[in-house]
């Protein structure tokens, strides 16, 4: 069944809808990321779910119970904030125990649950420290333990890893996912980082202008984006505008590139090809007669960026547009150099 449901949820600030009839359904035990650019309404959405912000329209349901009007402390939902929001004067253990003390959980049970929560985030030996004596990653784990010790039905996380440096962030991503796997608590995880969302989630909800544009598993979102915004946000970089349909599966872009594709497109469509799906080959004389074939274009390498595991090329095509290409170093050890004439091609299914 669904653990959390939002139906037509709307929030206005000064007459402007920043969350605009938002629909979202999370299955029990699922890890869903809410992915979108800054200002698209992610935090406002979480605040309404948590009960910190009044809803102007629509309804919020936990399992099948409506919670739209309930005060925050009556909802079995907890939130982890980017800022950690730990009490600086309390120890790690006291921070984690805070919510249980408020609810007058008996002493023995409290000690056991705090111990379990400390073990869950591997901070048993830090129980008596103050937050200021911990690293950023450790403070984040305390915030997580403090939220989970209440055994919420849904855990909301608002960009909890944004303040961590890259290597630590990747470690905490893995750890967070393992914890969620173990607890099977439903997680709604907000991020503006598409790699983080794709790597961590069972499903990704891509948000734009106060609405969800697509909710699907990471592979679907990446390979079959439903809108141009979704495609761009998950890393598409080569767009062919003004697609004209010539016949079944046969199209042409505004700049004259033939495109064959199984995708059934409406009028005024845009095609996109991911940089890593484009193959480069040296342009030889006998390739010239193939110039009219679909899914390829000739050009000249304008720039090369060496990324270690891959090279990224900027190719200027015959029609004077820039095409971004990424090829694995292992597949093409020597690569191409600026000024090389190349043919860029891709498969119809890409
Ligand atoms: P995100 O978390 O996706 O970056 P937010 O939900 O924080 O976006 O904000 C969405 C929009 O709502 C932004 O334009 C923001 O300026 C506006 N907003 C958020 N909170 C308030 C508020 N309390 N008063 C007025 N405008 C707000
Ligand atoms: Mg935010």
TrEMBL record:
Q: Which InterPro entries match?
A: AAA+_ATPase, ABC_SmlMolc_Importer, ABC_transporter-like_ATP-bd, ABC_transporter-like_CS, Mo/tungstate-bd_C_term_dom, P-loop_NTPase, PotA-like, Transp-assoc_OB_typ2
* Reactions it catalyzes: ATP + H2O + polyamine-[polyamine-binding protein]Side 1 = ADP + phosphate + polyamineSide 2 + [polyamine-binding protein]Side 1
Q: Name one Pfam family in it.
A: ABC_tran
- What EC number(s) does its UniProt record assign? 7.6.2.11
Q: What class of enzyme is it?
A: translocase
Which GO molecular function, any one, fits this protein according to its record? ATP hydrolysis activity
Listed A to Z, the keywords are:
ATP-binding, Cell membrane, Membrane, Nucleotide-binding, Translocase, Transport
**Signal peptide region:** none
Transmembrane found in the keyword field: no
Domain called ABC transporter: residue spans: 4-234
**One GO CC term on file:** ATP-binding cassette (ABC) transporter complex
Q: How does it assemble?
A: The complex is composed of two ATP-binding proteins (PotA), two transmembrane proteins (PotB and PotC) and a solute-binding protein (PotD).
Which NCBIfam families does the record cross-reference, listed alphabetically?
Answer: potA
- Family under the similarity heading: Belongs to the ABC transporter superfamily. Spermidine/putrescine importer (TC 3.A.1.11.1) family.
UniProt function note: Part of the ABC transporter complex PotABCD involved in spermidine/putrescine import. Responsible for energy coupling to the transport system.
Protein name stated in the entry: Spermidine/putrescine import ATP-binding protein PotA
């Amino acid at each position: 069944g669904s653990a959390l449901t939002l139906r037509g949820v709307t929030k206005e600030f000064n007459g402007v809808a920043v969350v605009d009839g938002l629909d979202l359904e999370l299955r029990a035990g699922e890890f869903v990321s809410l992915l979108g650019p800054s200002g698209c309404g992610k935090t406002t959405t979480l605040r309404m779910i948590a009960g910190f912000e009044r809803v102007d329209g629509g309804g919020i349901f936990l399992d099948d119970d409506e919670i739209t009007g309930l005060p925050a402390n009556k909802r079995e939902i907890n939130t982890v904030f980017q800022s950690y929001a730990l009490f600086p004067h309390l120890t790690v253990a006291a921070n984690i125990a805070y919510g249980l003390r408020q609810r007058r959980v008996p002493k023995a049970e409290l000690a056991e649950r705090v111990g379990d929560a400390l073990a869950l985030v591997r901070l048993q030996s830090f129980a008596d420290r103050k937050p200021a004596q911990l690293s950023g990653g450790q403070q984040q784990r305390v915030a997580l333990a403090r939220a989970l010790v209440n055994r919420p039905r849904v855990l909301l996380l608002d960009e909890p890893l944004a303040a961590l440096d890259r290597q630590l962030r990747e470690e905490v991503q893995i750890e967070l996912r393992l914890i969620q796997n173990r607890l099977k608590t439903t997680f709604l995880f907000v991020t503006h980082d598409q790699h983080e969302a794709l790597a961590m989630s069972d499903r990704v909800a891509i948000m734009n202008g106060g609405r969800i544009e697509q909710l699907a598993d990471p592979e679907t979102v990446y390979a079959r984006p439903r809108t141009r915004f979704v495609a761009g946000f998950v890393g598409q970089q080569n767009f062919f505008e003004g697609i004209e349909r010539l016949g079944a599966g046969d199209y042409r872009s505004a700049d004259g590139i033939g495109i064959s594709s199984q995708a059934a497109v409406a009028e005024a469509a845009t095609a996109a090809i991911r940089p890593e799906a484009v193959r480069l080959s040296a342009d030889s004389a006998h390739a010239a007669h193939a110039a009219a074939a679909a899914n390829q274009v000739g050009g000249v390498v304008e720039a090369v960026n060496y990324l270690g595991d891959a090279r990224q090329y900027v190719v200027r095509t015959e029609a004077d547009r820039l095409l971004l290409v990424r090829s694995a170093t292992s597949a093409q050890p020597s690569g191409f150099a600026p000024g090389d004439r190349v043919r860029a091609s891709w498969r119809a299914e890409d």
